[in-house]
Amino acid sequence: MNISVHQPELVRLLGASWLELRPQAEVVQRQAMSPLLRIIAGHLARAAAAGRLVDVDPSLTTIALAGSILAHHALSPVLNGLSRPYTNTEEAVAAYSRYWLKLLTTPA
How many domains does the chain have? Predict the structure, then answer.
């Protein structure tokens, strides 16, 4: 998330490379992002198993979480005219954490 707040051009570059340079970009992104995404998915799986989160597919939820943060940051200027949705990393972390925690702890 820190990258998306302070280096939005890197987020755009990753997105463009994913769409335009597959499968070459996929290999690089998998090496760079895979360890972090596995940690998040593992945490979600353990929390769901312990009853602290709703029972959701941890892999799909991890992708949705990461995708929503990147998409929100990239599309916010289109939706509301702001250059960045949050003024600093702490504000972004707090907002995304509140959003996802509410979604993942509220029974359907």
Answer: 1
Total residues found in the chain within this entry = 108
- Rounded-to-integer distance, Cα 38 and Cα 24, Å: 21
What is the pTM (predicted TM-score) of this model? 0.68
Quick: pLDDT tens for 38-83: 999 999 999 999 999 999 999 999 999 988 887 887 778 788 776 7
Integer angstrom CA distances of residue 65 from 22, 24, 39, 44, 81:
22, 24, 13, 11, 23
Instruction: Write out the residue range of the structural domain in which residue 61 sits.
Output: 2-105
